[in-house]
Amino acid sequence: MISIQIEHNIIYTVAEKKLTKDDYDRLIPLLQEKIRSFGTIRWYFEMKEFEGWSLSAMWRDISFDFKNLENLERIAMVGDKKWEKELTQLMKPFTAATIKYFNLSEKDEAKNWIKKIV
User: Fold this and answer.
1) Which residues, 6+ apart, have CB-to-CB distance to 22 below 8 Å?
2) What CATH number does residue 76 fall under?
3) Number of helices and strands in the chain (H, E)
4) Are 80 and 72 in contact (CB under 8 A)?
């Protein structure tokens, strides 16, 4: 399940349990709309009791990322599991976005970082 909030070109998502194709059917059009409006987006991705993706959801995520490499400016990954932190490192070679991992206890810091103007 995913909850989504939008503020200008920043997409705030909280992923709980396992993400499905239906979650991405809701999310991807919003991301595309914000890219059309702003050119680049920033993505706050919080993982709460996160179990990963269904195969179809993972494909939607990877497909979107590769098609929009230049449109992702900054990604804040927020979680509390070792594999979530490692996932952040694995993503870095596949995007031009600045990606940073934060522990759940640092989510306010992550929200400030995602908003920060460089």
Assistant:
1) none
2) 3.30.750.24
3) 4, 5
4) no
What is the residue-averaged pLDDT of the chain?
83
What is the C-alpha to C-alpha distance for residues 42 and 34, in angstroms, rounded to an integer?
10
H helices within the chain, ranges in order?
Answer: 21-38, 55-67, 82-91, 107-115
d(CA 31, CA 73): 13
Q: Give, in order, the Cα–Cα distances in Å from 118 to each of 56, 60, 73, 77.
A: 35, 30, 11, 19
Overall domain count for the chain:
1
pTM equals 0.84
Domain with 31, as residue range(s), is 2-115
Mind listing the pLDDT tens digit for each residue in 71-112?
A: 889 999 999 988 778 878 877 777 778 999 999 999 999 999
